[in-house]
Design brief:
- By secondary structure, the chain is mainly β.
- The chain contains 1 helix and 20 strands.
- The protein has a 5-stranded mixed beta sheet. The protein has a 4-stranded mixed beta sheet with strand order 8-5-12-11, with no helix packed on it. Strands 16-13-20-19 form a 4-stranded mixed beta sheet, with no helix packed on it.
């Protein structure tokens, strides 16, 4: 389900007038919402994007929330502010003419800046800032690859972070991927059986064999290669 900034603000109340420090605030979202005429702070992430040469760059940001909702944002070269939804790990995919980057941003108690008033729910407020360094992609845009969208659950039922070791169907050397609590995207070679062994940060482990076939084909990339994709799940055991 796609989450828009408009929807998020309407859920919290009426949008308040934009406020901030002096300077160019274009491209930034309002710094709070109103409930019954009372300004309510929301959780926010300040994002600055730099191209491979180190210069500020306009970009498009796709943010996957801890609950798997998605926010799409056009971010101007002077930076932007993303509205968050509490503590958790947010996965950002940043694309621009000059390059691309993916990163996980974890919001936790270290990022807590206060608590809202009782009129605003007496909830924690979190703020953080991140600079994204783009990696050149050859100027041809992103090349779509086959991948698995992995979610991992502890024996107690909650999603957990950890390390995935992937043995690809191509027969290459196994490699590892560090995964946050949110869905973990794992690039694979394409059709065939891929083995994933997962070591959770909670000390539990699990494994899964995934066979991609014709039903998992989602299209063709810019190079004319077939692209496959599937969401998968591993349930860990003590």
């Amino acid at each position: 389900m796609f989450r828009t900034l408009t929807t998020l603000l309407l859920l919290a109340g009426c949008t308040a007038p934009a406020t901030g420090e002096s300077g160019d605030e274009s491209g930034r979202e309002d710094s709070g919402t109103q409930i019954g005429g009372i300004d309510c702070d929301y959780d926010k992430l300040e994002v600055a994007v730099l191209d491979p040469s180190g210069d500020p760059a306009a970009s498009h940001i796709r943010t996957e929330f801890p609950d798997s909702d998605v926010l799409e944002t056009d971010c101007p070269a002077n930076g932007c502010q993303l509205e968050l939804a509490g503590a958790g790990t947010y996965h950002l995919v940043v694309t621009a003419d000059a390059g691309r980057a993916e990163l996980d941003v974890r919001i936790d108690e270290d990022d807590r800046v206060g608590t809202t008033t009782a009129d605003c729910g007496s909830r924690p407020v979190y703020e953080d800032a991140v600079t994204v360094d783009l990696v050149a992609d050859g100027g041809g845009g992103d090349i779509l690859t086959s991948n698995l969208g992995l979610r991992v659950y502890a024996s107690t039922g909650e999603q957990v972070s950890g390390t995935a070791t992937i043995s690809d169907a191509s027969g290459g050397v196994p490699w590892t991927r560090t995964c946050a609590v949110t869905r973990c995207w794992i690039d694979v070679s394409g059709p065939g059986t891929h083995h994933i062994a997962f070591a959770g940060d909670n000390g539990e482990t699990g494994a899964l064999d995934v066979t991609l076939g014709p039903a998992d084909r989602i299209g063709v990339n810019e190079l004319g290669d077939d692209v496959y994709e599937r969401d998968v799940r591993i349930d860990l055991v003590p």
